[in-house]
């Protein structure tokens, strides 16, 4: 008997991925200060994929308290270049600097997803995608950001791969769902195994 699925995220993209996959769920975003949670990890040697996992677990655990008996999906994504972790840019200048930092280099998108039931993590998974950005001319970066507008501030790194951001890339290794921020195939497999969706 399905327990009911709750997505602990306000992400439009994650909601769309689950909806398009035919998953029946409700949404209840976590009420956490992610940057405050992440601050102690900054200089502790915590790997970027582990940061994503910890934040995903914190979100799902927070929401699980409000939904006893339900299966809560928590997800988070970090963008890393070596040891440096990028966040959503606060303004266009931060977006410009982020894109120029990534220019000509390979960075990683670390996407974590967890399932929490009654406050306990019952399943976790992390997928990593490697994206190589082409060498970007500063003038082009300015034009790209002018065209992208405020959308550039809604994604880590200042780009959306499903939109104009694809023009920034030279090579991609990893699946689309990991890049968008929800490792969907492993999640669907686990939901089927638990009898939460038809399989």
UniProtKB/TrEMBL annotation:
A GO molecular function held by the record = nucleoside triphosphate diphosphatase activity
Cofactor(s) listed: a divalent metal cation
Give the GO biological process terms. Answer: nucleotide metabolic process
Which keywords appear in this protein's UniProt record, sorted alphabetically?
A: Cytoplasm, Hydrolase, Nucleotide metabolism
The record's top EC class is hydrolase
Which reaction(s) does the protein catalyse, per the Swiss-Prot or TrEMBL entry? a 2'-deoxyribonucleoside 5'-triphosphate + H2O = a 2'-deoxyribonucleoside 5'-phosphate + diphosphate + H(+); a ribonucleoside 5'-triphosphate + H2O = a ribonucleoside 5'-phosphate + diphosphate + H(+)
Q: Which InterPro entries does the record associate with it?
A: ITPase-like_fam, Maf-like
| Active site location | 76 (proton acceptor)
Q: What is its EC number?
A: 3.6.1.9
Gene3D superfamilies from the xrefs?
A: 3.90.950.10
Keyword Cytoplasm in annotation: yes
Q: Would you identify the family this protein belongs to, as annotated?
A: Belongs to the Maf family.
Protein's name in the database: Nucleoside triphosphate pyrophosphatase
Origin organism is Fulvimarina endophytica
